[in-house]
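Human: I would love a firmer grasp of how sequence relates to backbone shape in proteins. Could you go through the record with me and say what the backbone is doing? Here is the record:
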Amino acid sequence: MSDMTAQTTAEDQSSKEAYFTASQRQLIWARFKKQRAAMIAAMVLVFLMLSGLFAPFLSPYDPTIAGRDKDYTNGAPQMPQFCDSNGCSLRPFIHGVTRERSMATNFRWVTTVDEDIRLPMQFFVRGDKYKLFGFIPGNVHLFGVEGGKIHLFGTDEDGQDIFSRTLHAVWTSMQVGTIGVVIAFVLALIIGGVAGYYGGWIDSVIQMITDAVRTVPVIPLFMAISAIIAAEGSRIGIGDWTLVDLGPGLSSEGRFFIISVILGLVGWPTLARRVRTHLLTERNQEYVLAAQLCGAKPGHVIRRHLLPSFTSYIIVDLVISFPYMVLSETALSFIGLGLKDPVSSLGVMLQKATSADVLLNYQWYFIPVIFFVALVMAFVFVGDGLRDAADPYSDSH
C-alpha cells in the first residue's frame, strides 16, 4: 500500500513539475485539448482547409467553364451506388439520365433516370488541366465516370458542377480572409505598438485615426469601389496623379486582390486597440526598463520584448477575426459588390440561390450553404477554444 502511495505521490510531483516547466504554448495546447467542441471544430476546419487546398485534384471538372455539362443544366445531384434493381456491383456507379421538356411542368426540363444504363466510377482519371497550389501543373482528378459525367451536388443553370465550384469557393474565401487578416495583423501591430509604447500625444493622434477608420461604412465604400472597377478606362488617383490605372477593366484576379486589401485596411482597428492596451500596461515593467537601460532602441524593445509577451493572445485574435473576414467577403459578393463570375466563392454561389424558382425546384443550390456555415462555425469554435485556453484565469481549466 505504501509503495502505491509513493508511486502516486511521485506521479503527482512529476506532473506538477511538467506543468510549471511547460512553455506557454504547451499549456495552451493542453487546455485546448480538454475542450471537445473546439477539438471537433479544429478537425472540421482542417478537413475544409485541405479540401480547398487540393480542390483542383478532388473536383472532377474545371469550375470556371460555363456549360461544362450543357445537356444537364439545373441537374439534380447524382450519388454513386453499388446496387439497383438489376443487381449489385463491386464498383460504384451512377445511372444514365434522359432529359426532356414536359407539359406537366410548364415545359421545364424533366430528368428521367434510366436504370438500364450504368456509368461505372473511375479513380485518378485524366481531365481538365489545373495548377495545384497555383504552380504545380496537372490533369489528374480523384474521380470521374466512364462514358459520361458525374455531379455529386448537381449542376447550376450554366451547367457548371456545383461540387467542383464548392471546393474552389471554400479555398477562394479562405484566401481572401487570409490576405485580409495578414494585412490587418501587420497594420495593427505597427500602429498599436507605436501608440502603446510612446503614449502621450502620439497615442492621442493615432486613436483619432483609429476611430475615424472604425466609422467608415463598409457597404458604401465597396459600392463606390465597385462602380470605379466597372467603369471603362477608370483610374484611382488624386487630381492628375494616378495611383492605379484600371485600363479597360479589371480582371477577376485584380478584383480578388482589391477586395482582400480593402478588407484588411478596414479590419485592423480592433486588434490595434488590444495591442495598444497591452503595451500601455507592460511598457513600465522592469524587463522593459532593463532593456532600455541597456541601450535597446524602441523598435527592438517592442519587437523582441513586448510583442512576444502576448503572442498567444494575438494568434487567438487572428483566429477569431478570420470568420468575420470570410463573412464580409461572402456578404459583399452576395450583394454584387465583391467577387463575380467566373471566380468561385461562397458569396458568388449564394447569388444563384436567391430566386423563388431555385427555392421551389432546385434545392441543391443550397448545398454550398452547408459548407459556408461549417467553415464559419469551425473558426468560431476554434477561436473560442483558443481564447479560453489562453486565459490563465478561465474557469474551464
The chain has two domains: 59-157, 168-390.
